[in-house]
Design goal:
Blueprint (H helix, E strand, L loop, with lengths): L6 E9 L2 E4 L2 E2 L5 E8 L12 E3 L6 E3 L7 E10 L3 H14 L6 E7 L8 E7 L4 E6 L2 E10 L4 E3 L3 E5 L3 E4 L13 E4 L2 E6 L8 E5 L6 E4 L4 E5 L8 E5 L4 E4 L3 E2 L2 E3 L7 E8 L8 E6 L2 E2 L1
Parallel strand pairs: 1-8
Antiparallel strand pairs: 1-2, 3-4, 4-7, 5-6, 7-11, 8-9, 9-11, 9-12, 10-11, 12-26, 13-25, 14-15, 16-24, 17-20, 17-25, 18-19, 18-24, 19-23, 20-21, 21-22
Amino acid sequence: MPVDTARLTIGSTIAMSGAHLDPLVDEYGVDWLLTKLDGWDDGYAAPDSGVTNRVSDHGGHVSDVFAVPRIVHVEGRVKAPSWDAATLAWERLMAAVPLSDQTTMTVAHGVAAVLPTKQAAVRQHEKPVIADRVGGLLSYSLSLIAPDPRRYATVLQSASTGLPFTTGGLSLPIVLPISIGATVNSGRLALTNAGNAAAPPSLSITGPCPAPTITHLGTGRRLVVADAIDAGRVLTIDTVNRTALLDGTVLRTVTGSWWQLEPGVNQIAFTAPAYDAGALLTVSFRSAWK
């Protein structure tokens, strides 16, 4: 179980008795063994019911239900050459689990082609515990919290498209003009979320671009940027925090309905009031699981 100050990585296999780490000796000669991993593979924690009681009547009113943060419990054993080596190993582990910032925790189960490696941003939740310490041997217990309960693919996917246009072809002067041999750019993207939970994408629009609209065709939800984007400037829309920043600093106005990538194939349309060949939409995302 190698650890450093930026990343906590857990590699595991699945046995009949549950999830566990294969024994791993790190570069310091310390042997790590995961003995328990709770809260990672069992979906979302139980959310609020999403129902508020009616006044002076039976039953309640239904509202949207959202998952609460994920709590992950990790337990394991350490076998080091000496007491000092075990102490240093524990200190490295504590450095990898921040108290206020977040670090990336990855979990790999078995064959990656069958069970993709997943990750989540976590931080310390409760006081870490050391037990059964004798010489270079010790047992530990960690409680971690992931503010975003989704588990994400470690692979970042990205796709781009320009605005839709049609060029070429031959228009015939008949009642219903038709184009022959035209070249078409649809201004659409087909993006596959391989998980079982909605995945929030990052949307980047490179100018020049008249005030654009980005539509999730499956739900009909659309995000409309209020102003045009000048040449060479980039507007980045964060669908998790629901913000839009021009060149990373200037807040811009986005109206409409926020959307995310549903499990399966998603069709996304990029449009604007006028065509500009320099306009480019890039959608980046990680598949997401409950």
